[in-house]
Amino acid sequence: MAIPSRHRAVVNGLRIFWVLAILWYELGIFSASVRWCNWPDPYLHLPAHILLVADPQIVDRHSYSSRGPLLSYLTRVLVDLNLRKNWRILSYFLGDMMDNGRYAMPEEEYEDYYQRFSDIFRVTDGIPVYFIAGNHDTGLGISSQFSDEARSRYSAHFGTPNKVISIANHSLHKYCKELHLMFLKEQHTDPVILFSHIPLNRPDGKGCGPLREKGSIRPGVGLGYQNMLEKKSSQRLLESFKPVAVFSGDDHDYCEHTHQLLSPRGQPQMVREVTVKTISMVMNVQRPGFQLLSLAPSDLRTDSKHTYFDTPCLLPDQLRIYLNTYIPFLALSLLVVFGMNVQNETRSSHLKNRPISSQDFPMIDRHPDIEDPSIGSSSSPGWFILEGQRRRPKVDRLPVSEWFKRPKEALLCFCSGRTRTVLRRQSWLWASLLDVWSIAIFPLCTFALVTWWLMSN
């Protein structure tokens, strides 16, 4: 019949649509975003590649405790899954690896916390990884909530907070006073790139460029945070290290600013600072991101060329996918399913209530000797008249409770296309709910498989 065939086509079409949507929006769009962002390599030969990631801030049970245990747990799961989708390869973390790494907690809880970070950001053997301590990792200021062991725990798991690294004849510095003094005693000819978790000082309200989502970096200090370094500290860093570039984190949004380094002789040196976007979906930015940095070895440099090149990479807006994609798709799918079942119910009622006509039966050639039953009774055998209303074959209904007691039988019923036969006399609402379940099971299983794949790889 036309109605069951059209019904099965719509249901199967929605199943396919939702499976493809889950595969694309949970996996494909993230892989595509990474592939579309290319390394900024202006040279024919391969330079050194460094991927900069800022403020992943792995959340824990303390991060959103006001939401309650269930919502807090779901938030941690969704954030972890989002970070797994965005993660590929890494060389440098710009701080705040953990949201609450500075807080006092049992050693076992911190180990589990760190293990979650390690499971998400797995690194291929042979790829070096470096970390900068952030205020969420070791604390900033004094508070009874901060652990006295925060710095020692950080050093034991992530390494020393400050160091000098040489890559492609570039010196990569993470600042501390001791390194500053050592650097001044030595002769350095390689270009210097400075990494700092907290951005350097700049005029209040200074713009950050077109890639920033909103506002600017403003001065501010409070318990456990500092928006930018002090003016004297920033100037001392620039004058001592004379970096060709500065990369920072902490602010969560993207920002570009050019510092002016005064020189006693000649033109002042312009030092560009890039504040890298957070890679986390819950840090008040619509699109998380990271930064690609390419360093040119000394044999590829000329006086007219830069020694480094960088580019920002933006990731999909996960919250926008949930709110502006899945919810409209869900509303449209429900509208199609309910509308289809209401239409089928209307057609079925129309066929049931229309009067009986001769067209409902096949034409039979009458014998000329047999009289018309409407004229009188006939003594010829084989003819009879049923008085009363038209009878229909009785169809046993399947009670609603049986669908929950026998889910396997119900699922087989859907897969074999016998749903409309069993539910011929059920209401359109119940039939719609069963259709919704038969459709939803496919994208739900797809989402579970994608989640399992992300967790296991």
Automatic annotation (TrEMBL):
GO terms for biological process: GPI anchor biosynthetic process. Keywords: Membrane, Transmembrane, Transmembrane helix. Pfam families: Metallophos. Residues 50-254 form the Calcineurin-like phosphoesterase domain. It comes from the Eukaryota. One of its GO terms (molecular function) is hydrolase activity. The keyword Membrane applies. The chain crosses the membrane at residues 16-36, 321-342, 428-455. It is a multi-pass membrane protein. GO terms for cellular component: endoplasmic reticulum; membrane. Gene3D superfamilies: 3.60.21.10. It is found in: Membrane. InterPro entries: Calcineurin-like_PHP (IPR004843), Metallo-depent_PP-like (IPR029052), PGAP5/Cdc1/Ted1 (IPR033308). This is Metallo-dependent phosphatase-like protein.
